[in-house]
Known about the structure:
The chain has a five-stranded mixed β-sheet with strand order 2-3-1-5-4, with no helix packed on it. Strand 4 and strand 5 (142-152) form a beta hairpin. It is an alpha+beta fold. It is 25% helix and 31% strand.
Amino acid sequence: MQRLRNNTPRTTMSDRPQAHLTRASRQPCVTPRSLPPSSEPTFYYFAYGSCMCPVDLQRTLGENTCDYVLGTATLQGYRLAFNRRSQRRNCGVLDVVPDETSTVEGVLYRLPWRLSDRLDEREEIPTGGYRRETISVQCGDRHYSQVRTYVVVNKLPAELAPNDWYFSVVLRGAITCGLSEPYCWQLFEHMYRLQQGQGTPRPLQPNCFLPRSA
Length: 214
């Protein structure tokens, strides 16, 4: 299996943020909500990787993206995979691929259309890194169609491990935005196993807890 080799310390099982994961599932800071009508054109965007973290997304878009969050959302019929090597981040980065048996959790934004080009640049649309894909998601009790997300264009033959920075920002976004505790644990386990070279992790399922061995 391909995996990143670098000199930074690996995340260990003893580093698991158990208390933070528990608090996140009980008290999500992002709950489904309705935003007031916008005075400018907007689009829906489903984030499943580093863009789940509004602080990280703000670095790209230059605005407080917390104001644009609708809430946590689920994407049926897809699964996560680290199918691309990012030259900028120098590690494996996330993708979603069709899988009828799986579900991806993430964050749904309603973004001003004027930020569309900046988001495309972040996802490396101009250089063929990702492409737009139109999907439907469930956010609270509402179904949203015509939602934008991004998928890898040229997928690696095997998953590539994230580095510690990417590991941290993805998990931080998942926890602080209130993704389900089982899903957060599986996301942690998926990235941890890739870093340790322990074979291909099983697809994430939202209602299945993983053992939490030390």
